[in-house]
Amino acid sequence: MFMNWIWEILYYIGFYRRAKLMIIGLDNAGKSTLLSLLKHGKLVQHPPTPRPVSEEMTLAGTTFTAYDLGGHQMARRLWREYMPAINAVIFVIDATDKERILEARAELKGILASELPPEIPVAILGNKTDKSGCYGMEELIQVLDLQQELISNQENTSNRECKLFMTTMVYRQGYGDAFRWLAKHLK
Questions:
Q1: Alpha carbon distance 41, 182 (integer Å)
Q2: What CATH number has the domain spanning 20-185?
Q3: Which of 76-85, 93-102, 144-153 tops mean pLDDT?
Q4: What pLDDT was estimated at residue 167?
Q5: Are strands 53-59 and 162-166 parallel, antiparallel or unpaired?
Q6: Which residue has the higher pLDDT, 15 or 162?
Q7: DSSP string over 29-77
Q8: Average pLDDT, rounded, for the chain
Q9: Which of 49, 71, 95, 180 might form a disulfide with 27, Cβ 3.0–4.6 angstroms?
């Protein structure tokens, strides 16, 4: 009881922050690998996520409850059900999967145009940059048609903060910047 009261005071004055995070994207993009790497520090290749999984971790001064909702066709139906209860979104894209990049674009555009509240920041991870044939950042912006979302963001014409980060779980690069950015843009 006393400790709960202390945590609430710390939260109120800004020393302790909590956020609910939705990690989404197509299957095989690296969502579960990211979550495992963040939580346990281990690089593990996972089979497709059959049901939603949640983990709690503290990063960049914020305690995140992260929900890996899966990316197969049936799991994507759940994404919108979680939207009212979250504070941030990470959309993971396999930047080497040229056969499914348009499918990833359609899902990402659907999320950005959905009933997701505009104050919810969206970090887009162009993952697997360690592999040959990977889209570069500018190419990925073009193929995902993100110019407007990223430009609007810079000109403050949109309430939604949206940023693309190029990442590799193998070399543990890029995702730390994404979490620091998310922590900074939480409302």
A1: 20
A2: 3.40.50.300
A3: 93-102
A4: 97
A5: unpaired
A6: 162
A7: SSHHHHHHHHHHS---------S-EEEEEEETTEEEEEEE---STTTHH
A8: 84
A9: 71
Task: State the residue for tokens 């202390």.
Answer: 6
Residues linked to residue 84 through DSSP beta bridges, in sequence order: none
Compute CA 38 distance to the chain's CA centroid, rounded to the nearest angstrom.
Answer: 12
How far is residue 13's CA from residue 5's CA, in Å, rounded to a whole number? Answer: 13
pLDDT value of residue 82: 83
Tokens linked to 42: 């281990």
- Token code pair at residue 31: 């969502």
Locus of tokens 């056969």? 99
Q: Are 22 and 111 in contact (CB under 8 A)?
A: no
Does residue 123 come out as left (phi exceeding 0), alpha (psi in the -120 to 50 range) or beta?
Answer: beta
